[in-house]
Amino acid sequence: MVCRGCMSKHDFLWAYTIQSLETQKLTSGETSDSIDVASGGNDNAKASKTTGGKHSPAKRKKVEQVDNASSPRKSCHLKELQKRKISHKDTAAFFADGWRSKLCTCTDCKNVYCDQGIEFLSDESDTVHAYEVRGKEKSTPTSQYDKGLQALSNMNRLQQVEVLHGYNDLKSELNDYLKKFAENKKVVREEDIREFFSTLEARKRQRKSSDEGMSYFCK
């Protein structure tokens, strides 16, 4: 949607509301010979429907118009659209998705965009969809730390507490284990780290067996 103020300030955009309506009509399977834009390209579009098969001349004409709208042109596409009957209303306008990609990019139109301070309109990387895609890419975890936080947020409250307790226990035991090397000024080897985790795993199995035995006697 383009607000009323911007449509009034940049009134050449009204010419593209006709093109936007044609795209919507073609998508829904309708064809028309004349279109009267009465309320900003959103409603009250009056059209005389044609009859015939899906390969009728009227429909082929609309297909050519839409295809030409997205293909490069040497002539000014805006001037072609302005030859049609266009109603300028003091309202906002609604456009079909991707309408900015169909704006004319001839030299004269680019100068108009620049003079009116709206040269960003022809930049497809500045669309709402482009910002949404970049936002999703930024929200995707990239580091192991971010992935860990995301996994933690997907757990219930009890699981989160258990994971945090386990993390704190691991941190405490690892600090105590490495403190011995620091006091003795010894270099920590890969074998030492493997030994630490092997011992930790053995304690975990022993604790699990004890818990199972206790639950058996409590029955």
Automatic annotation (TrEMBL):
Keyword Acyltransferase: yes
Signal peptide positions (record): none
GO MF term set: ubiquitin protein ligase activity; zinc ion binding
Any one GO CC term of the record: cytoplasm
Domain of life where this protein originates: Eukaryota
Compositionally biased intervals (Polar residues): 41-53
Residue span of region Disordered: 29-77
E.C. number(s) listed in UniProt: 2.3.2.27
InterPro entries in alphabetical order: UBR7
Record carries keyword Transferase: yes
Keywords noted in UniProt: Acyltransferase, Transferase
Name of the protein described by the UniProt record: E3 ubiquitin-protein ligase UBR7
Organism: Mytilus galloprovincialis
